[in-house]
Amino acid sequence: MAKFIVLKNGMDHKVFNFDGNIARVGSGSTVDFQLETAGIEGDLFFIAKTPSGYEIERRARDLPFTINGVAAADRTIIGEGDKVGFLDYIMIVKYQQQEQSIPVPAAPP
Questions:
Q1: Predicted model pTM
Q2: pLDDT at position 103 over 70
C-alpha cells in the first residue's frame, strides 16, 4: 500500500491512500485521485503498481513534471520519499508497511 501526500502551493492539501493496481490522477468525475486543475480536465497521470514499486505515467502530454526536482520521462518509477512536482502541486510518495502486532508478554504468575 502507498500513501500519496499532495501539497498545493506548499500547504497541506489532500492525502490519497492507494492499495490498488492502477489509479487515475487528474480532474473531473472519472478520476480516482481528484485534484483542482484550472483549465485542465481529465487525466494528468496514471499510477500503477509494479514489482519494483509504483510507476507514474504522464497522460497530459503538455504537462511538465519533475521527480525530486529533475525533469521526468513520460513513465518513471517512483519510490519511498520521492517528490513529484507538477503545476502548483508536490506529491510525496510514502510506502506503508503492513502493521504487525507486537506480542505482549504474559504477566508473571
A1: 0.80
A2: no
